[in-house]
């Protein structure tokens, strides 16, 4: 299994490369914020599930309530697995999200999964491995790879925000979904090996 590159990406390298795309260049306003190194990646996967289809404001409230269940400390997978489902539902999570979060916790326990193990795996291997968990889809793992495993070359083709931003920036017709997906994938291929950074610029531009 090939190991992911551990070479730090300089600001100059990804900006210079992505700026070759003249449309993308228009929305590049300096370097991106540094991604924070995470110690508890399995918890980040649970939080990603909690945050699905929620606004940032609501997601922050839910997470604060979640931490309050554990004396405002980040819980271990064993603590989450042992938490009564009704307590998790009581903080505002749906039955499905409660089940999926505890599926993650039980998977981490059963697999003896560590941060170090994930860091040693290449991008596609992480996706294949973690999507074995019921309730964890490809998009969720892509977000984990981008923001918590700090992988530089992830393109999240199913992300609605990315699709909207690219349709607007590149003036693409979204009525034919198959053709649209082919076009955005073809555009994104030119961004490699810095597709994660391109996605971040697109989200940033869309939010502004």
From TrEMBL:
Q: Which family does it belong to?
A: Belongs to the alkylbase DNA glycosidase AlkA family.
SMART domains reported for this sequence = ENDO3c
- HhH-GPD domain location is 50-207
Sorted UniProt keywords: DNA damage, DNA repair
Taxonomic source organism? Chitinophaga qingshengii
The protein's annotated catalytic reaction(s) are: Hydrolysis of alkylated DNA, releasing 3-methyladenine, 3-methylguanine, 7-methylguanine and 7-methyladenine
PANTHER family in the cross-refs: DNA-3-METHYLADENINE GLYCOSYLASE (PTHR43003:SF5)
Q: What is its EC number?
A: 3.2.2.21
What is the name of the protein in this document? DNA-3-methyladenine glycosylase II
Which top-level group of life is the source organism from? Bacteria
Question: Gene3D superfamilies, from UniProt?
Answer: 1.10.1670.40, Hypothetical protein, domain 2
């Amino acid at each position: 299994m090939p190991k992911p590159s551990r070479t730090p990406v300089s600001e100059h390298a990804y900006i210079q490369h992505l700026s070759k795309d003249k449309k993308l260049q228009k929305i590049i306003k300096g370097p991106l914020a540094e991604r924070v190194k995470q110690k508890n990646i399995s918890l980040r996967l649970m939080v990603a599930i909690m945050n699905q289809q929620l606004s940032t404001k609501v997601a922050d409230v839910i997470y604060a309530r979640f931490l309050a269940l554990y004396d405002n400390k980040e819980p271990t997978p064993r603590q989450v697995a042992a938490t009564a489902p009704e307590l998790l539902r009581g903080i505002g999570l749906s039955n499905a999200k409660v089940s999926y979060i505890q599926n993650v916790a039980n998977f981490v326990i059963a697999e003896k999964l560590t941060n170090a193990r994930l860091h040693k795996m290449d991008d596609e291997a992480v996706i294949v491995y973690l999507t074995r968990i019921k309730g964890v889809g490809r998009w969720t793992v892509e977000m984990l790879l981008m923001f918590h495993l700090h992988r530089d070359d992830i393109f999240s083709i199913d992300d609605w925000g990315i699709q909207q931003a690219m349709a607007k920036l590149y003036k693409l017709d979204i009525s034919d979904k198959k053709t649209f997906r082919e076009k955005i994938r073809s555009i994104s291929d030119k961004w490699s090996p810095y597709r994660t950074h391109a996605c971040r610029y697109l989200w940033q531009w869309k939010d502004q």
